[in-house]
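User: Teach me something about this protein's shape.
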Amino acid sequence: MKDGKDWEKLLDADKIIRKLFRARPGNCPLRINTLATIEVIGGFEAFNTRPYHNYETWGQGYRITAGNLTVIAEDLDVALERWRLLSEGAAQ
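Assistant: First, the predicted structure itself:
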C-alpha cells in the first residue's frame, strides 16, 4: 500500500488538518514534532446532541490541543472549525 496520496484523494478532514497545522521551520525545531493532538474522547452522557440521544447514553467526540489552545466537539469538522476560530482570535 502506497503511503503518499495525491491531494485530491485525501479526506476533507485531512486537508483541513494539514492547512490548520502546517509544519514550518518556526514550529518544527526537530526532525519530527507534534503540531497538534487530536483525541477521540467519550463517556456517559458525553455530548448527546444527536436527535436519537436521550441524555442517558454513551457518546463520543474529539478534543484538539495545539499549543495552549484546546477545543472539544462531538464532530471532527466542528472541533477543527472551533480550533481555527479560537486560534485566529488568539492571534489578534
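Now, about its shape. The chain has a mean pLDDT of 87. The chain has one domain: 7-91. If you'd like, I can walk through any region in more detail.
User: That's plenty for now, thanks!
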